[in-house]
Amino acid sequence: MGFFDTLSETLTSTGKAVGSKTKEAAETAKLSLQISQEEARLKKAYEALGEAYFKNHENDMPEQYAVYAVDIRESAARLDSLMKDRQILKNQKRCSSCGAWMPNEDRFCGKCGAENEILVRETEAGEVKPEETKETETTEANRKEGNPSEAMEEEDGMAEAEEAEAAERAE
Ligand SMILES: [Zn+2]
Questions:
Q1: What is residue 14's predicted lDDT score, i.e. its pLDDT?
Q2: Is residue 112 within 8 Å of 97, Cβ to Cβ?
Q3: Which one in 35, 82, 90, 126 has a CA-CA gap of 20 to 30 Å to 59?
């Protein structure tokens, strides 16, 4: 075998090695995808079992599952309270009977007539003013995130001062 034959054989086998590496990587990626899809399916199946079990055995659960039940009840209560807060903010609540939207201060549903809880924030007995509430929330959010609108105002203020100085110099 001459030099060029050897060289060509080396190049070919290197090419084959690279080719199989690429193929291996593709196979690995494909398997990883399938694994994560199957993990998601398994998780969903466990969740479905847990939910079905909780719904059917909430009151006759063996002691060893009670710890999970506590977490579920606490989380459900927090979720309920958060959803109520959001409804109060938007001044809209859903009828507990038919699900129609209605203002917080209405007791009876306009659609089905069912009696509903009047939603009022405990801090503001009586009126609920969603605009004012929104304003407060936004201000608070800005304060936490370094208030971008205030930063812009400062920039504008600087620009104005520079303009005034320039005007003075020009005179
Ligand atoms: Zn209703």
A1: 65
A2: yes
A3: 82
**111 alpha carbon to ligand 1 midpoint, in Å?**
5
Predicted confidence at residue 94, as pLDDT, reads 87
Residue 113 Cα to ligand 1 middle (Å): 6
pLDDT at 6: 65
Ligand 1 centroid, distance to 12 Cα (angstroms)? 76
Weakly modelled stretches of the chain, pLDDT under 50: 124-158, 171
Task: Tell me, in angstroms, the distance from the centre of ligand 1 to residue 118's CA.
Answer: 14
Report yes or no: 91 and 103 within 8 Å, Cβ to Cβ. yes
* Ligand 1 centroid – CA 110 distance (Å): 7
Ligand 1 mean position, distance from CA 1 (Å): 91
Spacing, Cα 102 to ligand 1 middle (Å): 9
pLDDT digits (tens, 9 = 90+) for 14-38: 666 778 889 999 999 999 999 999 9
Burial (Cβ within 10 Å: 0-12, 13-18, ≥19) of residue 114: middle
- Distance in angstroms (rounded) separating the CA atoms of residues 1 and 64: 76
> Using the 8-state DSSP alphabet, how is residue 120 labeled?
-
Give pLDDT, residue 7: 61
